[in-house]
């Protein structure tokens, strides 16, 4: 008994529907975040402390919010970020997101730990659709090298190395829901295994020894642009520039890793003025993700200097609740919100978005 898709009017609506229709384990894995989920809530709430300073009497009859990310032209300034285990939410998994991304001309980032195989997700690509690879670095670097070279050979246009997960965060909702669904195993004496949750089961793919010293090696094995996903302070953005990578994603992994990691938009507001003062703002593409639910969030991030934003859970929820049609509608809603938002702040193209259009005086006051 779920609402009609046409009754979903914004991205949050998909979350409420998904919560009711998803299996407890899947809901637990998708919705959980670290510890008390304070960073996850903050990701969303930080945007509420930024207000616009709109311009009036601008001819906004025609607005265009297309842009480029890592050299790829996209119709809207967001991308589908990597989220593992797509088949927990929908039997077809990540390829559902591939089809929707194609329909709306946005980029999909393919997770290392997808439910579909990497090749299935690449095979689902249509026309000149662009995909990136999210990489969890294996401690066996030969495996990592094979994954990277294969992705490049299959046409991936960006390598996003996740750097915020030397160990997986503790996601208690995930642990509990696993416990409920597989409670019977406790009686079989396998309590520790079953209480670990889906996230723990995949942690063996992660190498805690990964460091800055490894980055030149990645540059030597691929020509794909390299982006570090999960950077959380301006000092590390500067190091990333020094390492010669093409981008960073300011991100705390949707609040799933370090509890009390700052929201990406707050790090962004701190980062861009420093880069500008050092003349480095054009040396790197800065992306953000976490808590983006409205086109106004996207526009705020772009005003502050982001090249684009990643969106995770909303597309998973839309997919889990309504399949392709859900993700399609979620993207269409963002499109419509973007058009309205651009008009109402008085901009007709993304290159007009700039810091004078936002008031961040309250951003730092939590
Ligand atoms: C993620 N994220 C993630 N990141 C990554 O680098 N590799 C991964 O495998 C995953 N898997 C994953 C699963 C699920 C269920 C979620 C919700 C998130 C983090 C993701 O790429 C992104 O940083 C956040 O999801 C952004 O926050 P929102 O949009 O979900 O609030």
Can you put this structure into words, describing what you see?
It is a single chain. This protein is about 40% helix and about 10% strand. The chain is an alpha/beta fold. The radius of gyration is 20 Å and the shape is globular. Residues about 185-195 have low confidence and may be disordered. Bound molecules: ligand FNR. Ligand FNR binds near residues 113 and 134.
Main traits of this protein?
mitochondrion; L-lactate dehydrogenase (cytochrome) activity; oxidoreductase; alpha/beta; 15 helices; two-stranded antiparallel ribbon; 366 residues; 8-stranded parallel sheet; 12% strand; binds ligand FNR
Topology:
Layout: H1 11-21, H2 24-31, H3 38-46, E1 51-52, E2 67-69, E3 72-74, E4 78-80, H4 95-103, E5 108-110, H5 118-123, E6 131-135, H6 141-153, E7 159-162, H7 172-181, H8 183-187, H9 191-194, H10 197-201, H11 215-221, E8 226-231, H12 234-242, E9 247-250, H13 264-277, E10 285-289, H14 295-303, E11 308-311, H15 313-345, E12 358-359
Parallel strand pairs: 4-11, 5-6, 6-7, 7-8, 8-9, 9-10, 10-11
Antiparallel strand pairs: 1-12, 2-3
Helix pairs in contact: 1-15, 2-7, 4-15, 14-15
Ligand FNR binds next to helix 2 and strand 11.
Which small-molecule species are bound to the chains here? ligand FNR
Pick out the low-confidence regions.
183-195
Radius of gyration (Å): 20 Å
Strand order, largest beta sheet: 4-11-10-9-8-7-6-5
Largest sheet: 8 strands, parallel
EC number: 1.1.2.3
Domain FMN hydroxy acid dehydrogenase: 3-363
Cofactor: heme b; FMN
Subcellular location: Mitochondrion intermembrane space
């Amino acid at each position: 008994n779920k609402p009609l898709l046409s009754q979903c009017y914004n991205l949050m609506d998909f979350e409420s529907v998904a919560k009711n229709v998803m299996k407890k384990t899947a809901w637990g894995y998708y919705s959980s975040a670290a510890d008390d989920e304070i960073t996850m809530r903050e990701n969303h709430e930080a945007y509420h402390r930024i207000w616009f300073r709109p311009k009036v009497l601008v001819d906004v009859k025609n607005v265009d919010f297309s842009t480029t990310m890592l050299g790829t032209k996209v119709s809207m300034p967001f991308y589908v970020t990597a989220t593992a285990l797509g088949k927990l939410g929908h039997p077809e998994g990540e390829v559902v997101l591939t089809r929707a991304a194609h329909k709306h001309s946005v980029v999909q980032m393919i997770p290392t730990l997808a439910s579909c195989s990497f090749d299935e997700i690449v095979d689902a690509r249509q026309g000149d659709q662009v995909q990136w690879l999210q990489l969890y670095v294996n401690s066996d670097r030969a495996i990592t090298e094979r994954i990277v070279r294969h992705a490049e050979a299959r046409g991936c246009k960006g390598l996003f190395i996740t750097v915020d997960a030397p160990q997986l965060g503790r996601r208690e909702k995930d642990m509990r829901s696993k416990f409920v669904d597989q409670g019977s195993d406790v009686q079989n004496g396998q309590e520790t295994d079953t209480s670990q949750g889906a996230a723990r089961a995949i942690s063996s793919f992660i190498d805690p020894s990964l460091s800055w010293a490894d980055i030149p090696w990645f540059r030597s094995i691929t020509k794909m642009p390299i982006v570090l996903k999960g950077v959380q302070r301006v000092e590390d953005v500067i190091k990333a520039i020094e390492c010669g990578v093409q981008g960073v994603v300011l991100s705390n992994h949707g609040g799933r890793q370090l509890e009390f990691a700052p929201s990406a938009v707050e790090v962004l507001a701190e980062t861009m003025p420093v880069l500008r003062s050092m003349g480095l703002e054009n040396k790197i593409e800065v992306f953000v993700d976490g808590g983006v639910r409205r086109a106004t969030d996207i526009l705020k991030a772009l005003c502050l200097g982001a090249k684009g934003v990643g969106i995770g859970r909303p597309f998973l929820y839309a997919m889990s609740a309504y399949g392709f049609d859900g993700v399609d509608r979620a993207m269409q809603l963002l499109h419509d919100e973007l058009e309205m938002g651009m008009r109402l702040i008085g901009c007709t193209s993304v290159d007009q978005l700039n810091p004078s259009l936002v008031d961040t005086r309250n951003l730092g006051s939590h």
